[in-house]
Amino acid sequence: MELFRCPVCGAPLTRGARVLVCPKRHSFDLAAEGYAHLLPAAQMHAKIPGDSREMVAARRRFLDTGGYACFSDGLNALVCSLLMELPAPSLVDAGCGEGYYTARLVQALRASGKTPSAAAFDISKFAVKAAARRDKAHAVQWAVASSFAIPVADAAADCLVDIFSPAAAQEFARVVKPGGAFVFAVPGPRHLYGLKEVLYERPYENTVQDVAYPGFALEQRIPVHSMLTVTGSTILDLFAMTPYYWKTPRSGAERLASLDTLTTELHFDFLIYRRAHA
Fold it and tell me: pTM for the whole thing?
């Protein structure tokens, strides 16, 4: 089932060999890797929006080490339980990055006997290209798109996941089916605290709050904790995939670069929201 819709008129898209096309003949080429560019020029607030090629590569290298596998496994178990009663659920990953969590989640759903339809998008062309390139089985529909103008039909998703990306509450409420789930991963209070202790003279804990989103009811907060030790170049890959990369003083970055080994706490919270019935 094609989950993406035309970003120009909102009509259904039909997938051809190398193109997506709607009844009004708006067409969108599929890249060689299999993804579509569904981000209209008016929504591009930079020449090349989103994460750079270098940031995407650093995140992929780090994730390939299994450093965040505990969070991916937690997400998989959670979403499989939320979709337990649905044999063919529809899944949307908003801000999917290079697709690490998406791919593993679809694999977990299939391993549980389900036949999911999955669409994932990110505003970074480099991230989506990397995700689609790895998806040899074409298990996921990939696109360059914005969470604030999601090219997916109303009430199309049984579950929408957002891993560390901005929450576009109005669009999420439009896309998720009544009774469907929105799973939002946010950093816990001491997530990467060991990294902050190196970067900053006065490290700080992350703020924790239960945010109310119109159209959704917060059902549960599920924490996932672990410890991580990284060495060598993986330390800088971890740094490059965090927001601290952009706001750390040079002195902090130099201290980090001098380390051979870094040990830090990991802490995600999964916030489970339920879409209200009309």
Answer: 0.94
